[in-house]
């Protein structure tokens, strides 16, 4: 049996992580992320001199979406390539996130957390 969603975020500081891109395909949504890894994470490396966190690329993939609400911020993407996260919640099949990019609310059959 696979890991729970919560355990997949073990040793990841999601509120210090950042969103890089939102990709929509048919009934799928992919969020490209830079996850902020904590020291106990197996992929952790000491941050560089100009970074305050060990960032590691990854994806949140949502499939079988039955409800989707995207409320993009007016200036999202004009000057930024990384968007700070203000709130993040996964509960069962529901997902909600507020960030500098905008607000994302959805319900999906499958929620996967992938690190590169």
How do the helices and strands follow one another from N- to C-terminus?
A: HEEEEEE
How many strands, which pairing sense, and closed or not: the largest β-sheet?
6 strands, antiparallel, barrel
**Share in β-strands:** over 45%
First-last Cα distance: 21 Å
Shape: globular
Number of domains: 1
Spatial order of strands in the largest sheet: 1-2-3-6-5-4
Helix content: under 10%
Number of helices: 1
Measured on Cα atoms, how large is the radius of gyration?
A: 14 Å
Oligomeric grouping of the chains: single chain
Q: What low-confidence regions span 5 or more consecutive residues with pLDDT below 50? A: none
Count the beta strands: 6
Mean pLDDT across all residues, rounded?
Answer: 88
> What class do helices, strands and sheet pairing give?
mainly beta
Short structural description:
The chain is mainly beta and 116 residues long. It has one helix at residues 5-8; strands at 12-25, 28-37, 54-72, 83-91, 94-99, 102-115.
List keywords for this structure.
116 residues; mainly beta; 6-stranded antiparallel β-barrel; globular
Task: Describe the fold and architecture.
- The protein has 116 residues and is mostly beta strands.
- It has one domain (5-115).
- The chain has one helix at residues 5-8, and strands spanning 12-25, 28-37, 54-72, 83-91, 94-99, 102-115.
- The chain has a 6-stranded antiparallel β-barrel with strand order 1-2-3-6-5-4.
- β1 (12-25) and β2 form a beta hairpin.
- The longest helix has 4 residues, at 5-8.
- The chain is globular.
- The model has no long low-confidence stretch (mean pLDDT 88).
């Amino acid at each position: 049996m696979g890991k729970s969603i919560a355990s997949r975020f073990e040793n990841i500081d999601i509120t210090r992580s950042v969103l890089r891109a939102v990709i929509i395909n048919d009934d799928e949504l992919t969020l490209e992320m830079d996850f902020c890894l904590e020291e106990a994470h197996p992929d952790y490396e000491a941050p560089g001199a100009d970074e305050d966190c060990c960032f590691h690329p990854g994806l949140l993939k949502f499939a079988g979406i039955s409800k989707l609400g995207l409320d993009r911020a007016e200036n999202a993407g004009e000057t930024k390539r990384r968007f700070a996260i203000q709130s993040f919640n996964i509960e069962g099949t529901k997902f909600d996130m507020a960030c500098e990019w905008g607000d994302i609310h959805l319900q999906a059959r499958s929620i996967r957390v992938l690190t590169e």
